[in-house]
Amino acid sequence: MSTLSIATAKEVFDLLRDDLAAIEQEFTRQSASNVDVITDIAQYLMSGGGKRIRPLLLLLSAKALGCDNHSRIRLGAVVEMLHTATLVHDDIIDEAELRRGRPSSNTTWGNAKCVLAGDWLYMQAFSNALEERNFRVLDLLISLTQQMVEGELLQMQKLGHLINEEEYFDLIYRKTACLFSVSMQLGAAIAPPQSFANPAEIDSQLGEYGRNLGLAFQIVDDVLDLTAAEGILGKPVASDLREGKATLAIIHALERGTGADREAIRTVLAQRSFTTVSHSQILEILERHGSIAYAMDTACAYAEAARLSIADLPHSDAKRALLWVPGFVTSRDR
To answer: DSSP character for 112?
Structure first.
């Protein structure tokens, strides 16, 4: 890895504070509709907090390549709007009742209104992205949307069934890491051409950083779903298992467990409840086989791969911040 020092959280916040505030304002402007319920749902979701990690990545990518025009603000709001739209649809599909410790939007407004509001947010995001008059931006966003929809459909097909690690990583790339990767690539798409000698190589390096970081992010999310307290997580624990989703620690335990261990896990996935087998029993199986540690070690390996993928970027405050993000992703508790 580069000998360049890793930024602190305060340095990253100081570097991006004004831009992130501008993105919040841009999101508010972009999500205003003549139909009040759309605006209400968008603002409700935006006010629920969130890490804003996707626009943060776009900002850092753009800054690392010398882009300081309004495009970074507009597209930062676009990627957060796309992410928000996916949250609306995910909560409907998963029949979620909570999101970040508050009632989910579908619980408040109902499925019919929320699915249409999610569709509107998607189209509004593309409408605003079109203002860039940049085919590369549209190409990235169209491919992203296709990957995310395919990922959701593939996951629905596999609910309640056992999957292997290859299938798991394909799913989390489509559902999560692809948006991280595209957020980084969008920064390159709007950067001045003279800021890098080999555009294809820079695009590849930034995309690889986003992919590795996104994989690490989702693996940690899946571990927290199994282990975090509900009050910290902001939603019921072990939601994935209740929905029939086999995540990395579960797959690891299935491959190494006894016949009784495998049967217990299969029972929970099939029943989509802890009626027969308790959550604590599942945790004991995971701990006994080192499955939680295995998943976290894998997340940390992807986080380090993200750092290594940008080793050739010119030294800058933005690069120091990009070196900080993987540690934040793997050490968070929610």
So the answer is: H
Give me the phi and psi of 246, to 5 degrees please.
-95, 115
Whether 3 is covered by a domain: the verdict is no
> What span, in angstroms and rounded, lies between the C-alpha atoms of 307 and 323?
6
Please give the residue range of the domain that contains residue 135: 9-331
Question: How does DSSP classify residue 192?
Answer: -
Q: SS3 letters for 56-107?
A: HHHHHHHHHCCCCCCHHHHHHHHHHHHHHHHHHHHHHHHCCCEECCEECHHH
The pLDDT, as a whole number, for residue 220 is: 98
139 in a structural domain:
yes
Other CB atoms within 10 A of residue 164 CB: 12
Residues of the chain with pLDDT under 50: 1-2
The total of structural domains in the chain comes to: 1
Calpha distance 292→288 (Å, rounded): 9
**Nearest-CA neighbor of 293 among 252, 242, 232?**
252
**Are 31 and 43 in contact, with CB atoms under 8 Å apart?**
yes
Q: Are 122 and 85 in contact (CB under 8 A)?
A: yes
In a domain, 1, yes or no: no
Q: Could you tell me the two tokens for 66?
A: 């010398």
What local confidence, expressed as pLDDT, does residue 1 receive?
44
- Structural domain contains residue 2: no
Q: CA-CA distance, 286 to 293, in Å (whole number)?
A: 9
The string of pLDDT tens digits covering residues 206-225 is 999 999 999 999 999 999 99
